[in-house]
Design a protein that fits this description.
about 425 residues; 6-stranded parallel beta sheet; 19 strands
């Protein structure tokens, strides 16, 4: 059977999709990129916020049209959307033929091959993560590696614990074995992903930590860059900071989801940090990690955020000048404490605040880019746009940050080049290879 895959949402979702693709290929099915050519289409969904849910529904309905006009006979929906709405999804979207929850990805072949009209599997989302082969779809020379899934933080606005389950770390040996396999396939940059990377290993209660894992990963020949997503501020230990500072393979790029800095809003969010602790941590990171690039995500419009709280957030960004930041409008999610809170500003006001923050952030990023002119960086080349080679510095995570466009040298996709930055344009840096 010809099978297509559409993966929505985060990098962890993409890894789940890659594992399903490997299972489907091993079962003898033919993989096709274009759903219009497929006999079975799989959509791996996100349901974190309203926008993600709408994207998933729109994708499902678009594929359902192919059942009327093309060769598509079976539509399978997996991941967060069916897990969150498992009692309703087949009734509300009868075009779907099969659903798999977040703990049921290994059942993908059965879901595709089943003759059952409405096939459904919702296995234990709190079970240990399955160790499966995967068909890596990123690169060249870089790949995500999931070290844990689920979350125990219970932030007031977040549905992830109810969708992805409790926090479960993968055994360290399994992560190291996969990393060696990726290195053997030519991967030079590993991007470690988990909902809370800093919590890695603590559920084992045997002394395993993220530092333990990192000390193993840096020993693997062929791996040159190790990038960390996401590091929760309250679990950033001195040991971890020192390891990041001292180990050359760990890139000095830290993604810290702060969400806000007003103490009252942080309490409402059920975040354990205070503004004083956040500012102190950022100062410590800058003092101890040479050249560190900090990224964060911020939420505006949470109930209780008035003009004063928002201005405090603006002032924080002006003062800290974080080179990388994303801003999101609060999206009330059914079943979360924040959805029941009163005193929420209008959607229009929240969007206006997001736009104001992003305008400020764009200026900060422009200033940062101009400061890079004249400096020489190691760049991982990812290909060409016909005029320039295109790659990334340590300061740029794939698919979310900027790229470097450069000429000259003997660059090749998947290889490193030394590049002098000669200019900055909207969305990227310009340079020449040495």
């Amino acid at each position: 059977m010809k099978v297509s895959f559409t993966s929505l949402g985060c990098a962890k979702n993409l890894i789940d999709s890659e594992q399903m693709i490997a299972l489907v290929a091993a079962a003898g099915h033919e993989l096709v990129a274009d759903p219009a050519e497929a006999e079975a289409a799989v959509v791996n969904t996100c349901a974190f916020i309203d926008a993600a849910q709408q994207e998933a529904i729109d994708t499902i309905l678009a594929l359902a049209e192919l059942k009327k006009t093309g060769s598509l006979r079976r539509l399978i929906v997996t991941g967060c959307l069916p897990e969150r709405y498992q009692g309703d999804i087949l009734r509300e979207l009868p075009e779907i033929d099969a659903v798999l929850g977040t703990g049921s990805f290994p059942e993908i072949v059965e879901a595709i091959e089943s003759k059952e009209r409405h096939f459904a599997r919702f296995l234990d989302k709190n079970a240990p993560l399955p160790e499966l082969d995967r068909a890596v779809s990123t690169g060249p020379a870089w790949a995500y590696i999931k070290v844990a899934d689920g979350c125990d933080n219970r932030c007031a606005y977040c549905v992830i614990p109810s969708i992805r389950g409790r926090y479960r770390s993968r055994p360290m040996q399994a992560v190291l074995d996969e990393a060696r396999s990726l290195a053997g396939a030519g991967v030079k940059e590993l991007i470690l992903v988990a909902q809370n990377l800093t919590h890695y290993g603590r559920d084992f209660r045997d002394g395993t930590t993220l530092c333990t894992l990192l000390r193993g990963l840096v020993q693997i020949p062929g791996i040159e860059w190790i990038r960390l997503h996401y590091l929760y501020p309250h679990e950033m230990t001195d040991e971890l900071i020192d390891l990041i500072a001292e180990e050359p393979k760990i890139v000095k790029y830290l993604d810290l989801p702060l969400q806000h800095v007003n103490d009252g809003i942080l309490r409402r969010m059920r975040r354990p940090e205070t503004k004083e602790q956040i500012v102190g941590l950022l100062q410590k990171l800058r003092e101890r990690i040479d050249g560190v690039v900090l990224r964060t995500s911020l939420i505006v419009g949470l109930p209780g955020e008035g003009e004063a709280e928002f201005e405090e957030l603006m002032d924080f960004l002006r003062e800290q000048k974080l080179p990388r930041a994303g801003v999101f409008v609060f999206s009330p999610q059914e079943g979360t404490p924040a959805a029941e809170m009163i005193d929420r500003c209008s959607t229009e006001e929240a969007e206006s605040r997001r736009d104001a923050l992003m305008a400020l952030q764009n200026g900060i990023m422009d200033d940062y880019d101009r400061e890079q002119i004249g400096h020489v960086f190691t760049v991982l080349c990812e290909g060409t746009d016909g005029e320039y080679w295109v790659g990334r510095r340590y300061a740029d995570s794939p698919e979310i940050d900027e790229q470097v466009y450069f000429t000259g040298g003997d660059a090749a996709p998947g290889e490193f080049a030394r590049v002098r930055i000669t200019g900055a344009e909207d969305g990227g840096l310009i340079g020449e290879a040495l």
